[in-house]
Design goal:
By secondary structure, the protein is α+β, with helices and mostly antiparallel strands. The chain has 4 helices and 6 strands, in the order H-H-H-H-E-E-E-E-E-E. The structure holds zinc ion.
Amino acid sequence: MANDVLASEYGMLDLKDADHAHADHLEMYVRGRLESRYISVVEDHLLKCGLCRADFFNCIGLHLIRGALGKTKSDRPERRSEPRFEIEDEAICQILNPFSVDRQIVKILDISENGMGILAPYPAPLGSIVQIRAANTIKLGEVRHSSMLGDKGYRIGLRLHVGF
Ligand SMILES: [Zn+2]
């Protein structure tokens, strides 16, 4: 009886597996493309399920590898029309690995081909993977350095992974 209730509850949310997050949902979450009504469901589950967090980190890893591979095939003309980050833009920064549901508003300080510097209210652990989103642009980046910038906050240097 309890299982029936659980199954129908999750069925309404369109999760195929009643016990775990749907792989497609994890994928979409990493890409910043998950429908908003599923976001809190996925987040709640990731916070309590180590198995799904492992799948999630694996999914992030695959994106980073694909991004690195994509970069070797440079000068693809369609890249020019991609939305881009601009200096001084505000962006939303969320640490995906280690997983956190906290988001902070950051300011983009500088941009290079493979990296970006942001000003953030809070520091980020070295080596953590963050998702940066501004307007229609979403990127994954790895934290390479993080240091206090006077009383303004923290300057965080990211290595960006292209290839979404
Ligand atoms: Zn799970």
